[in-house]
Amino acid sequence: MAEITGVYAVSHTPVMTNMPDAPAPARREAAFRQFTRVGQEIAATQPDALVLVSDDHLHNFFLDNLPPFCIGVARSYPSPVEGWLKIPKQQLPGDAALAAHLLQSVMAAGFDPALSMELTLDHGMMTPLDLAGIAGAIPVVPILVNTVQPPMPAMRRCVAFGRALGQAIRGYMGAARVAVLATGGLSHDVGTPRMGQLDEAFDRGFLQQLEAGGLDAAADFAEATVNTAGNGAEEVRNWLVAQGIAEGAPFETYHYDCITDWYTGIGLGRWSMMA
Amino acid sequence: MTARNWVQDMPTEEAYAINRILYRVQHDRAEETRFFDNPARYIADEPLSDAARAALDATDIGRLYLLGANPYLLRAYCLQLRVPEADYLAALRAVGDATHG
């Protein structure tokens, strides 16, 4: 049976990678230190696999066939898909066996994610992995949530899907240790009239709901208020999947800063799960 | 008006036709080449509404947004077209009152 060694969530934005020096030195260095911290903590537990929860920014998927959830079941993932992203092209190893187990388990539990045997991961996964210093170091299972084009899965559905994933991970016999990293948000807008505006009240409110623990309070908060926080804030669904994997354990916020120079509310932390 | 993250809760056929162009030009090298060889001809050949065709012809960013262009695809399209960032943001903000309270 696999142990979940840690469940983490971090913001993602390609601007951190392509314009790292945009914020003042103290603010950017504080944020980068926390990405390094998350990477070091994940690596220190020596996980056999890393389950990544993020969204596809309409690279692999389009409106001709747009899954609410998708599990990548490939043995490797060429990345990043964006030619303009300042991260070297590379092949990330995939844990196809764990991915297949997760897919089959959550389907048996009543969920219906798509599968993909060919994904090219985008900045949503690559930027945090690169900043954390763990890109390519651990076989990954990418799980993609539609957060970029309505209609999207309900916030509570993401928590429920995460719970099924967590139970599947814990029941896996093929690995001893599995870590989880969700990425996205917090408040920001991409390509809307509000682009450049952030919503610190949403970000802090969402983090407070996570910190309080419990399964659905953060989901309900997000469902009620995400429209004030920007279309990029829809990515908190990825955090809610992780909240479900962590069974609603209290979240410990490592860092939060409302960094307009990166167009994004930057948050990082982990769920404080009992061993 | 209540603040909203999206112009459309469901993409319309008109939005789909716009987004298909934005997606193809970004992801299909042959389509990208064909588009940049002659954007006006490329747009003329696509099955678009008159409003969508006019917005694409003029690179009317605000209008494309209001017609349902996915913001992520529209962002990438404008970067491909090398629309200056200030112009891009100004075009979106000019239509802001129509979509956000």
Tell me what you see in this structure.
- The complex is a heterodimer of chains A (275) and B (101).
- Chain A is of the alpha/beta class.
- Chain A has a single domain (3-271), classed as LigB-like (Protocatechuate 4,5-dioxygenase, Chain B, 3-Layer(aba) Sandwich).
- Chain A is built from 8 helices and 10 strands.
- Chain A has helices spanning 14-18, 25-44, 96-108, 123-132, 155-170, 200-212, 217-225, 236-245; strands spanning 3-10, 49-54, 69-72, 76-79, 90-93, 114-116, 140-145, 177-183, 251-259, 264-271.
- In chain A, the strands form 2 sheets. Chain A has an 8-stranded mixed β-sheet with strand order 6-3-7-2-8-1-10-9, sandwiched between helices.
- In chain A, a hairpin with a 4-residue loop joins strand 9 (251-259) and strand 10 (264-271).
- In chain A, helix 5 packs antiparallel against helix 7.
- Chain A is globular and about 45 Å long.
- The two termini of chain A are 13 Å apart.
- The mean pLDDT of chain A is 97.
- With 101 residues, chain B is mainly alpha-helical.
- Chain B has a single domain (13-99), classed as Protocatechuate 4,5-dioxygenase, Chain A (Orthogonal Bundle).
- Chain B is built from 8 helices and no strands.
- Chain B has helices spanning 13-27, 29-37, 39-45, 50-57, 61-66, 71-80, 85-94, 96-99.
- The longest helix of chain B is centred in the N-terminal third of the chain and has 15 residues, at 13-27.
- Chains A and B meet through loops of A and helix 1, helix 6 and helix 7 of B.
Tally of domains of chain A: 1
What percentage of amino acids of chain B are in beta strands?
under 5%
State the low-pLDDT regions of chain B, or none.
Answer: none
Looking at CATH, which topology of chain B would you report? Protocatechuate 4,5-dioxygenase, Chain A
Strand content of chain A: 15-25%
Number of helices of chain A: 8
Judging by the overall fold, what is the CATH architecture of chain B? Answer: Orthogonal Bundle
Low-pLDDT segments of chain A: none
What is the H level of CATH, i.e. the homologous superfamily of chain A?
LigB-like
Q: What's the helical proportion of residues of chain A?
A: 25-40%
Shape of chain B: globular
Task: List SSEs of chain B in N-to-C order.
Answer: HHHHHHHH
